[in-house]
């Protein structure tokens, strides 16, 4: 892997210890992946923020890094575990909240902007076609490459952090045009309808394919459906991109997917349960989505608690339109900057079974909290919450 003179100076420590250490990480990654060099990026998004995941050892590492490192490009961070908002004590214990705040403040010292968000493209870190970025959140990587047209590999928290400091990332993988071309195509037997079917397709693709895949048969899809598809692909597999297509490329493998196969995928991620709570927002909801949800409830009190997860900017927008306290009293709880699937919320509220519209949430809720999960379309989830 070749470095230019400025990059060699960074590696030699001429721009400070933080830059040197970050460059060492990028060079190590680049050499391991046979990168030809480094490429400038416009933004970064870092995972490895959740105190429940990284613990005190992770907190100590991030605090040490923050003493010498500063971000060179716009940088955002992934959701917290315990909330760091002013009303965090509603659910989370003080010790965990304080630890999470220390992690958050360390990232802020380095220059992170915004709150804690798994959909940076919806918040303060929007990127457009052709931009090279370094993002570490799997749903954002797939959505960014596939829908927004950005160029990013599926980074680790450490490699994204290093890229944020240097402002560059190794040139390999999905930063290279050839690797963005589908190596295989899936062809749908019938049109998809609703988030649950898009989640099932993501489960199927994630399990079966390792490289960029083309999808034939999706002519119209909502942004929410594409978010769901992206999140599911990122959860159940390692590929970082899909492309919507009308016909397969000549000579490419084509795999036909029947309605029955999609039903089998859905049944593998969804159980028949009597839910104790509803979780919506994995990936996070936008202010527009929350407004639609609240309008669908039409002022009615859900029979089981509805937890809606979002990022700070959307929360603040909603708080100007709706009375948050009144919503809570009416069994609708908005939680900001907190991962719905890796935040111990089911344990905290005593839920043994959860209803959600997210195939991603299904995987992580079962793995991290041991709850049973049912997956439905959002409209059906809301209807079920009112009648459960």
Protein traits:
388 residues; alpha/beta; Aconitase, domain 3; 5-stranded parallel β-sheet; 4-stranded parallel β-sheet; 15 helices; 44% helix; 16% strand; globular
Main beta sheet strand tally, sense and closure: 5 strands, parallel
Query: What series of H and E elements makes up the topology?
Result: HHEEHEHEHHEEHEHEEHEHEHHEHEHEH
Q: How far from one another are the termini?
A: 59 Å
The outline comes out as globular
Q: Mean pLDDT, nearest integer?
A: 95
Strand content: 15-25%
CATH topology group of the largest domain: Aconitase, domain 3
Q: Into which percent range does the helicity of residues fall?
A: 40-55%
Number of strands: 14
Strand arrangement, major sheet? 12-11-10-13-14
Describe the structure in your own words.
The protein has 388 residues and is α/β, with parallel strands linked by helices. The chain has 3 domains: 172 residues, Aconitase, domain 3, CATH 3.30.499.10; 88 residues; 118 residues, Aconitase, domain 3 (2-Layer Sandwich), CATH 3.30.499. The chain contains 15 helices and 14 strands. The strands form 4 sheets. The protein has a 5-stranded parallel beta sheet with strand order 12-11-10-13-14, sandwiched between helices. Strand 6, helix 7 and strand 7 form a beta-alpha-beta unit. The chain starts with a helix and ends with a helix. The mean pLDDT is 95.
């Amino acid at each position: 892997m070749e470095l230019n003179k400025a990059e060699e100076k960074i590696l030699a420590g001429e721009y400070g210890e933080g830059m040197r250490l970050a460059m060492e990480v990028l060079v190590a990654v680049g050499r391991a992946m046979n990168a030809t060099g480094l490429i400038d990026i416009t933004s970064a998004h870092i995972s490895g923020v959740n105190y429940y995941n990284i613990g005190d050892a992770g907190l100590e590492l991030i605090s040490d890094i923050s003493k010498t490192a500063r971000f060179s490009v716009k940088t955002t961070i992934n959701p917290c575990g315990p909330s760091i908002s002013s009303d965090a004590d509603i659910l989370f214990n003080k010790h965990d909240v304080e630890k999470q705040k220390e992690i958050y403040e360390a990232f802020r010292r380095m220059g992170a902007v915004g709150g804690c968000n798994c959909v940076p493209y919806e918040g303060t870190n929007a990127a457009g076609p052709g931009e090279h970025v370094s993002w570490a959140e799997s749903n954002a990587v797939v959505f960014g490459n596939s829908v927004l047209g950005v160029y990013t590999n599926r980074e680790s928290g450490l490699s994204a952090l290093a890229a944020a400091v240097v402002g560059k990332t190794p040139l390999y993988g999905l930063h290279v045009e050839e690797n963005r071309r589908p190596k295989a195509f899936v062809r749908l037997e019938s049109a998809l309808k609703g988030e649950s079917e898009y989640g099932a397709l993501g489960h199927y693709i994630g399990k079966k394919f390792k490289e960029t895949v083309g999808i034939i048969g999706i002519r119209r899809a909502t942004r929410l459906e594409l978010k769901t598809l992206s999140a599911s692909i990122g959860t159940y597999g390692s590929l970082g991109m899909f492309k919507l297509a009308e016909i397969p490329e000549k000579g490419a493998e084509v795999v036909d997917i029947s309605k029955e196969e999609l039903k089998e995928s859905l049944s593998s991620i969804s159980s028949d349960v009597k839910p104790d709570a509803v979780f919506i927002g994995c990936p996070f909801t936008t202010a527009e989505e929350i407004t639609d949800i609240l309008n669908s409830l039409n002022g009615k009190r859900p029979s089981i608690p509805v937890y809606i997860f979002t990022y700070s900017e959307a929360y603040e927008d909603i708080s100007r339109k709706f009375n948050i306290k009144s919503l809570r009293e009416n069994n609708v709880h908005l939680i900001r900057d907190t991962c719905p699937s890796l935040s111990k919320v089911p344990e905290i509220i005593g839920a043994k079974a959860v209803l959600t519209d997210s195939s991603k949430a299904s995987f992580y809720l079962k793995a991290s909290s041991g709850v049973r999960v049912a997956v439905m379309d959002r409209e059906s989830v809301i209807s079920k919450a009112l009648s459960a």
